[in-house]
Specification:
alpha+beta, Barwin-like endoglucanases, about 20% strand, globular
Amino acid sequence: MPLVRASRGLAIAGVAGIVGLSLGGCAQQPQRLASGSNSKEYFPSSVYGRASPRVVAEGEPVPRGGGVYMVGKPYSVAGHTYYPSEKHYAQIGLASWYGTAFHGRRTANGEVYDCDSISAAHPTMPLPSYARVTNLRNNHSLIVRVNDRGPFSPDRIMDVSRKAAEALDFRHSGTSRVKVEYIGAAGLAGSNDEKLLATLRTDGPATLVAGDSRERSKVADYAASIPASEPEAIGRRFAQGTPLPPARPFDLGTIPGAGVPIAMR
């Protein structure tokens, strides 16, 4: 995201120890160096703090699943409080996408982010879950796997992966006005990106295939059986010794000065 919000960086330090796992994928703001769809995020540790180490190197296959099911307790970032919930969610707002700076790093529920997967970050939906994202500029509609927290920006409601942005046709514009709808819990084993990509429609709302719907029901039953204290305990264990990566990149040098490294300004 080209624009750096200093207030977010100040708030995150106190958040990390409080919310642990629920913010495992997000922290300080990165910086885009170059314009265009292949620009690079830039986040010096002297400005943004340590990023979580990559657990999968670039070019290596990214494992699917491997995380935990979680909803989480209310938490605050940059003066705004978020209330995670399993209740039905539908909202219209701005979406952006995030790319290679986060590829191979842990998401908030312990999965590994793959910029070529059909995934997304949302501040309050259960993780992992399915959501329908409809680009209101062109009516492209797609089911995505929500497995991370973000974008923690008052002007945006979701960050999608680079691949999802391509499918929804807003990778080059960086952002788009979308409608986001919570569908339900997703399987812990990971999602089939080919099947999710096949949900893309331009003539109506995207829908899940039967197999994914059955898996969603099984996960919902499993989530209901977890003691209330268990997700919190899992979050504490995951948070110990795990530095947080930066928050989601905005995109594409669309803001003046975004192509200049912070140290050179």
